[in-house]
């Protein structure tokens, strides 16, 4: 006899926690959750790192700040930075982590004038919950970040309130800077007005911080790869806190219940726990690690370029969320920045410093933007490598690029310095070995967003 509708509605989602489960089933669940929760655990462990910081300071090339505060750079990110893959040298960064269950947070926006700016603010899932930047028409003022359950009084003078879906979040202001000494001086005044602090410190008056005067201490020698944030051995110990901070999205309730039941079974059963860790290690090797390579995911475009269209709004697109978190975590929303990824030349061969390449934009063929555009270069680990001219990207910020007589612009990508003066002005130095190119269109126009415009081929010339 079928269950009545009333009885069916009373059934809880997920498995019956009283039922014995097998190691094989636990491993199956563990493999699945390791993949889709990898970005969440990644963010959670970044928060744990910030929770140990006691002051705003610079540690080698890295930014440190206690929770609910941020620290700003005063120039481009140092090439030795290894905490976040695919940094750029188009903007001056700031960085901080929020713990909104501790306190709502006030974010200050000074007057940037005509300068491009955007504050990237994402939750535990790396989804944006804030629209704050030049493209959004945001005005100078005070913006309040609150957690999902906050019901306090909004004080006078707050311009807008943004509510996060989790208590953990990341705040990263990005302020455009040109490659000229004059602009590097001019930006400093605006940077001092950027701040983030707990609501209790809000008094309606703009605070000013001389970021250049923060303590500077030596850091550990940088490694080659991104700082590791996710470990299969620790994953399932951290997961209950992570899931508690990121309540299930619509339709995920049964999935969460299934995972929590398996975690409960593993708590007092070492064999189940080891089966889960083994499955996580397997998923890391076979599922997650390959997504570090841009060529293995994304929307495929002409000339072997790829892109994505739901960055920082992944929702239940678990594959793309994890792929981006593995390869270049912390991307802006598409209407803020559009990204284009490249591992190959026009023939489909891997980009490598043993060859020379050109990227030619036809007349009026650079990315159509309201903001600006850039083309960055990264080594095989998606980081910068020091080069003789200290250049890691080219684009709008470079005021000495040389256009051809027909209006086209050719970028020369190679490890050795061109002897020709024009080519040298347009030179993007290639790091040793395999490398990747990365296009950014800041505040893109419609042709970039709808796919009418795509990047030109990377041509091997020798």
Automatic annotation (TrEMBL):
Domain DUF1214: 337-445
InterPro entries in alphabetical order: DUF1214, DUF1214_C_sf, DUF1254, DUF1254_sf
A Pfam family reported for this protein in Swiss-Prot or TrEMBL: DUF1254
Domain DUF1254 residue range list: 68-198
Domain of life per record: Bacteria
Ranges that cross the membrane: none
SUPFAM superfamilies: VPA0735-like
PANTHER family, per the entry: BLL3101 PROTEIN
Name of the molecule in the record: DUF1254 domain-containing protein
Originating organism: Nitrobacter hamburgensis (strain DSM 10229 / NCIMB 13809 / X14)
Lineage of the species this protein comes from: Bacteria, Pseudomonadati, Pseudomonadota, Alphaproteobacteria, Hyphomicrobiales
């Amino acid at each position: 006899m079928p269950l009545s509708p009333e009885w069916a509605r009373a059934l809880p989602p997920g498995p019956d926690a009283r039922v014995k489960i097998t190691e094989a089933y636990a491993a199956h669940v563990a493999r699945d959750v390791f993949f889709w929760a990898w970005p969440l655990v990644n963010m959670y462990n970044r928060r744990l790192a910030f929770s140990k910081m006691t002051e705003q300071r610079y540690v080698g090339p890295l930014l440190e700040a206690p929770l609910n505060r941020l620290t700003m750079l005063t120039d481009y990110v140092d090439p030795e930075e290894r905490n976040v893959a695919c940094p750029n040298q188009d903007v001056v960064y700031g960085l901080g982590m929020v713990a909104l269950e501790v306190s709502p947070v006030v974010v200050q926006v000074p007057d940037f004038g005509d300068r491009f700016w955007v504050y990237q603010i994402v939750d535990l899932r790396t989804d944006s919950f804030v629209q704050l930047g030049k493209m959004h028409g945001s005005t100078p003022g005070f913006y309040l970040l609150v957690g999902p359950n906050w019901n306090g009084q909004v004080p006078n003078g707050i311009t807008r309130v943004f509510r996060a879906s989790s208590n953990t979040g990341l705040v990263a202001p990005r302020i455009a800077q040109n490659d000229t000494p004059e602009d590097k001086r001019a930006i400093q005044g605006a940077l001092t007005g950027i701040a983030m602090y707990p609501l209790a410190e809000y008094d309606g008056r703009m605070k000013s911080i001389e970021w250049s005067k923060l303590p500077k201490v030596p850091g550990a020698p940088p490694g080659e790869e991104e700082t590791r944030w996710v470990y299969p051995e620790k994953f399932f110990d951290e997961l209950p806190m992570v899931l508690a901070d990121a309540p299930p999205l619509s339709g995920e309730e049964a999935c969460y219940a299934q995972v929590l039941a398996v975690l409960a079974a593993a708590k007092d059963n070492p064999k189940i726990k080891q089966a889960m860790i083994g499955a996580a290690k397997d998923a890391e090797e076979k599922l997650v690690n390959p997504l570090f390579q841009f060529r293995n995911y994304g929307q495929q475009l002409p000339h072997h370029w790829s892109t994505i269209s739901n960055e920082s709004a992944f929702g239940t697109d678990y594959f793309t969320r994890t792929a981006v978190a593995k390869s270049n975590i912390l991307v802006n929303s598409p209407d803020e920045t559009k990204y284009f990824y490249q591992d190959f030349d026009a023939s489909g061969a891997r980009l490598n410093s043993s060859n020379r390449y050109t990227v030619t934009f036809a007349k009026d063929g650079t990315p159509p933007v309201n903001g600006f555009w850039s083309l960055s270069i990264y080594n095989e680990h998606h980081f910068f490598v020091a080069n003789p001219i200290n250049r890691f990207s080219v684009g709008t910020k470079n005021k000495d690029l040389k256009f051809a007589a027909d209006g086209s612009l050719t970028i020369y990508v190679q490890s050795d310095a061109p002897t020709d003066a024009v080519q040298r002005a347009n030179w993007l130095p290639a790091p040793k070995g395999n490398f990747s190119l990365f296009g950014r269109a800041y505040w893109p126009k419609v042709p970039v967003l709808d796919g009418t415009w795509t990047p030109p081929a990377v041509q091997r010339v020798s």
